[in-house]
Amino acid sequence: MSEPLEERPYELVPQRPPADRLEPWVEVDSEALVALDAQGRIGALNSAAARLFGATREELLGTRLGTPLTAAGTAELVLRRDGQPAVTLELTPLGDHSGRRWLRLRDITRLATLREKLATENERAALLESAANDGLWHWDLAADRAHFSARWRELLGLGNEPLDDSIAEWLDRVHPEDRERVQGALRAHLDGDTVLFECEHRIQHHGGTWRWMLCRGRASRDAEGKPRQFAGSLSDVTHRRLAEEQLAHRSFYDTLTELPNRALFHDRLRHALRRAARRADYVFAVLFLDLDRFKVINESLGHFAGDRLLVMIARRLELSLRPGDSVARLGGDEFAILLDDIRDASDAIKVADRVHGELSAPFNIGGQELFVSSSIGIATSLTGYQRPEDVLRDADTAMYRAKASGRARHALFDTAMHAHAVQQLQIERDLRRAVERHEMRVHYQPIISLATGRIGGFEALVRWTHPERGPISPGDFIPIAEETGLIVPLGRWVLRQACMELASWQRKLGNPRVCTLSVNLSSKQLNQPDLAHQIAQILVETGVSGDQLQLEITESAILEHPDAAKTILLKLKELGLKLSIDDFGTGYSSLSYLQRFPIDSLKIDRSFVQHLGQERGIESDDARIARTIVMIGRNLGKSVVAEGVETAAQLSLMRSVECDHAQGFFFSKAVDGDSALALVAADRRW
Ligand code: C2E
Ligand code: MG
Ligand code: MG
Q1: CB contact at 8 A, 382 and 415
Q2: Closest ligand 1 atom to Cα of 525
Q3: Which of 82, 335, 677, 679 has the fewest Cβ atoms within 10 Å of its own Cβ atom?
Q4: Could you tell me which of 686, 683, 646, 679 has the C-alpha nearest to residue 662?
């Protein structure tokens, strides 16, 4: 063992040179030898020693070695001289001889450099280990010994307690559910199947909690490819995993109410369907729940209150369920409940009653008491379903039935509804072929100018005569056409048909300005960016001028995509077309859009006209609304049309409020093209 390495430059102190001589054996010895006197000065040295010191013997004699030397043990001396590389000498005491201590010198510079390099390497490894954010591990496979860095311990919440030098210290802490996967990945890498070992797993923190770790490593191999050393890192990815879990949570849960969303509900429904397919005695039910008048609450109290209410309702719904059941928010004010393992429909009806009861107590929102009810549609697996969407569709159908029968009701999807649903499907199928099979016709209902009492124009209304069912009302097939998108080709067909008809009237009467024609436009059509182009083409084809054509659009169609609608409406105005709001008063209560959009006229919805003229003397609500709409129209410079005028009383009322036009059975139903032509011709002559 050498003395602790100590650097002390040796000084050359000029001294009185001792007249001395070397014993002959000293000079012969090939080793470098030095003799120190009692004061530690060099009293004698051989030439090998002088060479090591890099000085002459004369220069060295009498100088002191700057190294404390003990009798035993070797010492080291580092020589630094200007312009020359440092030299490390090892001094080994040989014993005393004639009053001097003899030392053997060895140049160990190379050894010292190596040693130093190794120390630096070790230091660097230790530094890397401690500075790295990742924990490091090393597994000597041959010796089956493992080493874990301080950071590794830290990541696991371990203090200084001793760890075995076994890889089990790691593997035993891995989450039982992940262990097999980790071991599989390790084996695959050791077998040479993977270039890199990489695995994310949970590991038990000292505190007992589970943390997610990303573990990576690589084995070194011998010439035969057998793994020898295996080292790698461990980093804590718990935060990232949590964020991922939250994202996943978000895609399956409704953020407002924290209830499962439609996607998760579908998933659960799919499981229930699978069970029902396996087990004949397993029955489940879905309750489709829609709040009554939620829109009114939302609009009158604001969305914040509306949201609060939805959350409170969600909590109450949860309360009315048994453990195995689940409730989800499908969107808006729609909820769905899955009742697991019931006996029959009567169980589901009981739950529906319980839900009604649960919701009947008032909700307190910001000091206000709110009363809420819901309509519930029920579908059970007894109907026999394959797909989740079919169950929901039928429960939804039943919900509409419930809603139609009043508030706070429920309805069970039954065979009649089923028949109706099947019929809807058939209508949809037949609708696709109706135009090409010439089952569609366009009829025309006159619109009368109240100032002149003459026909100002016609509204084109589509008519469908089904080959087996006979006439089907637009009220029955237009919604289906809209839902399926068939309204787009159908609407275009009606438009072309109507324009051709108008052109033929103009030719027959020799008057290009016989009357205007109103054509209904669905919101689906309004969403077509090239609508104006299509219409321009039809105008060119038929020779009808744009100002003879009026398009009827509902408020909701415009407000669905207000910006896109505005662009399209402006393009339509450029063609000279007139635009009219259909069913005015039934949609949004906001009137501001009337000014923002290029609208020419309003059609007061039939529902306001219907009851007019029944009471005498006092003005009814409907009459007031009709009067108000006419006034609004007048103030905004729009003309107003009253729809559904059926009686003379209604007509005179509309006249008294100075409505511009009227349309309704009182004048005429919609009639075919030839009859319409006869009507105008007669009107003109008259
Ligand atoms: P709408 O555009 O509001 O058409 C007026 C509806 O009221 C027509 O029903 C018409 O026959 C009916 N009506 C007119 N006067 C009276 C009356 O005095 N009393 C009563 N009770 N009803 C009257 P129709 O033809 O059944 O059409 C219903 C709805 O179907 C239309 O309502 C319109 O929204 C839609 N529709 C009809 N044809 C087309 C079309 O070619 N394209 C589009 N997109 N929708 C159409
Ligand atoms: Mg209309
Ligand atoms: Mg209408």
Answers
A1: no
A2: 44
A3: 82
A4: 646
State the pLDDT at residue 17.
Answer: 39
CA 267 to chain centre: 17
User: Are residue 35 and residue 164 in the same domain, yes or no?
Assistant: no
- Concatenating the DSSP letter of every residue in 227-280 gives EEEEEEEEEE-HHHHHHHHHHHHHHHB-TTT--B-HHHHHHHHHHHHHHHHH-T
pLDDT at 178 over 90: yes
Interval between CA 552 and ligand 3 midpoint (Å): 8
Average pLDDT of the segment spanning 10-15: 43
pLDDT digits (tens, 9 = 90+) for 496-542: 999 999 999 999 999 888 899 999 999 999 989 899 999 999 999 99
Helix (H) or strand (E) run with residue 163 in it: none
Q: Looking at the structure, tell me whether residues 215 and 259 fall in a common domain.
A: no
Q: Which of 242, 273, 305 is a domain's end point?
A: 242
Q: Report how many domains make up the chain.
A: 4
Question: Which of 114, 130, 146 finishes a domain?
Answer: 130
Q: Does the beta carbon of 462 lie inside 6 Å of ligand 1?
A: yes
Q: Is there a single domain that holds both residue 268 and residue 219?
A: no
Give the CATH number of the domain where residue 100 resides: 3.30.450.20
Q: pLDDT tens-digit profile of 622-633?
A: 778 788 888 888
* Bridge partner list, 77: 89
Instruction: Tell me, yes or no, whether 516 lies in a domain.
Output: yes
Domain of residue 387, residue span = 253-413
Residue 421 lies in a domain: no
Q: What is the mean pLDDT of residues 387-413?
A: 90
Measure the CA–CA gap between 515 and 459, rounded to whole angstroms. Answer: 11
What integer pLDDT is reported at residue 84 of this predicted model? 77
CATH number of residue 406's parent domain: 3.30.70.270
Which pLDDT band holds residue 619 (cuts at 50, 70, 90)?
A: low
The three-class DSSP label of residue 411 is: strand
In a shared domain, residues 441 and 566:
yes
Residues 260 and 221 in one domain: no
In the predicted model, what is the mean pLDDT of the chain?
Answer: 87
Which pairing describes strands 455-466 and 440-449: parallel, antiparallel, or unpaired?
A: antiparallel
End-to-end Cα distance, the chain: 135
CB of 254 within 6 A of ligand 1: the answer is: no
Residues 574 and 460 placed together within one structural domain of the fold: yes
Quote the DSSP letter at residue 454. S
268-278 pLDDT, tens digit each: 999 999 999 99
Q: Edge-to-edge, what's the strand order for the sheet holding 283-291?
A: 326-331, 334-342, 283-291, 374-380, 410-412
473 lines ligand 1 (CB under 6 A): yes
- Name the pairing type of β-strands 470-472 and 516-520: unpaired
